[in-house]
Structure formats: C-alpha cells, structure tokens
From TrEMBL:
Protein name as it appears in the record: DegT/DnrJ/EryC1/StrS family aminotransferase
Protein's organism: Streptomyces ochraceiscleroticus
Keyword line: Aminotransferase, Pyridoxal phosphate, Transferase
Family: Belongs to the DegT/DnrJ/EryC1 family.
GO terms of molecular function: transaminase activity
Top-level taxon of the source organism: Bacteria
Signal peptide boundaries: none
Amino acid sequence: MGTSGTLESAGIGIGDEVVVPAFGNAEVTEAVVRAGAAPVFADIDPDTYCIDPAAVADVLTSRTAAVIAVHRFGQQADMARLQELGARHGLLVHGAEEPGAAPGGAEQRRAYATYYDGRLRGVMTPTERAPHTYEQYVVRVPGNGRPDRDAFARTLRAKGVACRVPVPVPVYRMPAHRRDLLLPQTERACDETLALPAAGSLTRRELQRVVSACNALGGLLQPAF
C-alpha cells in the first residue's frame, strides 16, 4: 500500500499533520497533501540521509498524527527509534522505499561500493550504519557549498564520468511546497552530495576512471569550517 493509502486507511486527513523528510523527492509530501493532511518537514541524519528521530521529536505538535520515513540511497531509516517515538505519542509510523531502485543486484552494487571505499580520496564516502544496498553511491564533496560540488561534478562529466546531483534542493524550496525553513543538515546534503556510477554493468576500467578523476580533484577542495 502506498503512502496515501496508508494514511487514508488510518483515518489521517484534514486537520492532521504528518512529519516527512525535507531531503529527497516530493512524492511523499504530495501523498500527504492528497490525503488532506499537512506535511511538516524534519531534518535528516547526516550519515544516512534519512529522517532524524531527534528532529522529528522537535516538530511534534498536538496535531501530529503520523511520521513517514523514506529509506534513502539504500540506507535504512532508524525505524526502531521512530517506532518508539510513535508509541510514546500515539503516532502512525510508516517506512517507505525510495522510488526508482537501481538496476543490478545488491551484491554487484556492494562490490562497486567496496572498490570505491578503498580507493577514493578527497571526497567523503558513505557511512554504513546498517546493511546498505547502495541503490545510489553518494559521496560528499567538501568545500564551501554548492559551487564547489557543482564545479567538481562538471569536471567529472567532462572526463566522461556520469555523476549526478541526487537531491538538488530541499522539498520546502520547491514552488509547490515552499516554506520559510532552514534545516541545516538537509541544506548541507543538498549542497555537497554527488552520486557516482554504481549501477548496471561497470568494467574495472570504468571504475578506475571514476576513482582517478575524483582523486585528481578531491585534494584541491578543503572542508569548510
């Protein structure tokens, strides 16, 4: 059952608030709106890119009826802490898979991730807290914000590396869902994250090209303090 159906079957709608992640696609937010409820955005855990239970606790009100977590990039949201929070406050807690799973098996993607983890320098590789299926292999480009990451990405593409920015803007900056918010971990993730090729059939030479291109650039960018 989709998010809209889950909310509707639980009787959640007009007058209710549903806490959703601000980092990612707008589909979950749109499902909340279709159900008649009001989406409330919460910040993410910077390691998993999933909604942070502590940030959820900070935005709860007497109108909160549910929390929707999205498992992001193959990382799992902390459902145990979210379920505990839900039990304490009488909330529905629903975990949703990220749309658009990557092609290729999880073992193949993990092999690519292991290769990258051991060789990439100058970018921050993913943190794995629980079994990670690497639907996307997302690194952070340290620096002073979006211009550094975007310049890095443009240079990689010029070298034939098909990288992409996974989440360009927070959901609360999209025209249909605009709010006057500033969630620091979400903003930082939108500015720094870059998805490297890790799906389909990649040859060792292609993987080496990705690593060489990243390592040639990464040392030039220093973390912001």
